[in-house]
């Protein structure tokens, strides 16, 4: 079998066989297929696409290219949640303890932030002492004893995706539905969960800009999960504005705590409740409506917050910070950003909000960049707000005035302020499952 023939077949619009896909994935991971031939095939896939069978085979080959995690040592139905990435998305910090407080185990492997999107591991590591580098034996023990744990991925989980994503990133082939779907689902399948909930973002701060594109990606991923025996559901959620008001690592941990204490903004709370309800539903707790009510009860009775305390302590963190935010690392300087114009916040460039947070030190432009856990943004005005000249728009936190200068310059380009009031934008657009696409509010 020759790589040349595989490239030519896909370039000409052909369907690759299982053996051809196996040959490509195994050979590229082993190093026998050079980058230039892999790049050529990725570009051919970018233009010609892949059918459902090809995408499923690619996904499973990638999942099996390294360690396949066996979660059978953990009692109960294991439900995993994956977000396609956004700005201010701290939902894992809320829903993992919320779901675990109801007896559903959450054994989650998360990633770090890159570019304008934040990473759950970076947020957790802003808690003094907390470790996300946990071996599997201890990981299983924490989940069985506490009910939840969030750790970094093992070193050999889906090496095919690591290599292929790095190549896609420099060859302009990231934006391909089968390649996106196989990248996400190979990691979820290799992570060993019984059921998978996908949070597919759409809007100015997400990879998929429209709800229609997000639904198409969700359908592909749901089909992949169901194809390999994992019950899979996707929610299409809004990222046309940051989620909640905090952007930055310790700031987002504080806001997640506020959700579990019942004092956070309703948009973030509603999103967390809906995600938690779907995880509980996938675990067989009850109807979606019952699960929504149950999740809200765990907020009002404080049991979700107590479970977060237990998880943080079990992973070596100083759980006192969850009650006393002054114990977090503190920023060296801060600045209020106030409005020059009056009117309505008609829209926001959410991606630029994320870029501003990176400029402050809260995120990474490259994988080697260090994170400042105290840096970030707290938004006072979001889409739909009525503002007057001089009103507070946001507060910036950083370790230098130079970082504040750069972030303020970026942030002032985020807001589209007009005389007209915008139409309300829903937090949820659709729910995608094997039964089809259900539209929220329809």
TrEMBL record:
One of its GO terms (molecular function) is thymidine phosphorylase activity. It is an enzyme of class 2 (transferase). Signal peptide: none annotated. Keywords: Glycosyltransferase, Transferase. Pfam families: Glycos_trans_3N, Glycos_transf_3, PYNP_C. Residues 344-418 form the Pyrimidine nucleoside phosphorylase C-terminal domain. One of its GO terms (biological process) is pyrimidine nucleobase metabolic process. Its EC number is 2.4.2.2. The keyword Translocase does not apply. GO terms for cellular component: cytosol. InterPro entries: Glycosyl_Trfase_fam3, Glycosyl_Trfase_fam3_N_dom, Glycosyl_Trfase_fam3_N_dom_sf, Nuc_phospho_transferase, PYNP-like_C_sf, PYNP_C, Pyrmidine_PPas_bac/euk, Pyrmidine_PPase_CS. SUPFAM superfamilies: Nucleoside phosphorylase/phosphoribosyltransferase catalytic domain (SSF52418), Nucleoside phosphorylase/phosphoribosyltransferase N-terminal domain (SSF47648), Pyrimidine nucleoside phosphorylase C-terminal domain (SSF54680). Homodimer. Belongs to the thymidine/pyrimidine-nucleoside phosphorylase family. NCBIfam families: PRK05820.1, PRK06078.1, Y_phosphoryl. This is Pyrimidine-nucleoside phosphorylase. It comes from Thermophilibacter immobilis.
């Amino acid at each position: 079998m020759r790589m040349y023939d595989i490239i030519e077949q896909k370039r000409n619009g052909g369907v690759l066989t299982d053996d051809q896909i196996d040959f490509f994935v195994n050979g590229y991971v082993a190093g026998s297929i050079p980058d230039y031939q892999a790049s050529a095939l990725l570009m051919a896939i970018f233009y010609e696409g892949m059918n459902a069978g090809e995408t499923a085979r690619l996904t499973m080959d990638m999942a099996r290219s390294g360690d396949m995690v066996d979660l059978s040592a953990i009692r109960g139905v294991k439900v995993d949640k994956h977000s396609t990435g956004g700005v201010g998305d701290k939902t894992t910090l809320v829903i993992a303890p919320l779901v675990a407080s109801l007896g559903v185990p959450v054994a989650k492997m998360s990633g770090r932030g890159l570019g304008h999107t934040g990473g759950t591991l970076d947020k957790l590591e802003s808690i003094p002492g907390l470790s996300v580098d946990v071996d599997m034996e201890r990981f299983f023990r924490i989940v069985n004893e506490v009910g939840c744990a969030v750790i970094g991925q093992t070193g050999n989980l889906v090496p095919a995706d690591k290599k292929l994503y790095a190549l896609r990133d420099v060859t302009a082939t990231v934006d391909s539905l089968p390649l996106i779907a196989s990248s996400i689902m190979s990691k979820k399948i290799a992570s060993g969960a019984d059921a998978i909930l996908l949070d597919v973002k759409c809007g100015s701060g997400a990879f998929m800009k429209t709800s229609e594109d997000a639904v198409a990606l969700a359908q592909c991923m749901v089909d992949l999960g169901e194809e390999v025996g994992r019950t899979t559901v996707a929610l299409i959620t809004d990222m046309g504005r940051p989620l909640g008001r905090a952007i930055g690592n310790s700031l987002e941990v504080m806001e997640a705590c506020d959700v579990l204490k019942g004092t956070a903004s309703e948009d973030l709370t509603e999103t967390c409740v809906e995600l938690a309800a779907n995880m509980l539903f996938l675990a067989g707790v009850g109807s979606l409506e019952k699960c929504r009510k149950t999740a809200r009860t765990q907020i009002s009775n404080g049991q979700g917050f107590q479970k977060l305390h237990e998880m943080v302590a079990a992973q070596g963190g100083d759980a006192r910070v969850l009650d006393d935010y002054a114990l977090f690392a503190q920023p060296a300087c801060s600045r209020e950003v106030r409005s020059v114009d009056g009117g309505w916040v008609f829209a926001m460039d959410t991606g630029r909000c994320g870029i501003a947070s990176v400029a402050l030190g809260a995120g990474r432009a490259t994988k080697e960049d260090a994170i400042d856990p105290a840096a970030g943004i707290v938004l006072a005005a979001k889409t739909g707000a009525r503002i007057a000249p001089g009103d507070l728009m946001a507060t910036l936190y950083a370790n230098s005035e130079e970082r504040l200068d750069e972030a303020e310059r970026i942030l002032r380009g985020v807001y589209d302020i007009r005389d007209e009031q915008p139409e309300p934008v829903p937090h949820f657009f659709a729910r995608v499952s094997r039964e089809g696409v259900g539209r929220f509010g329809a």
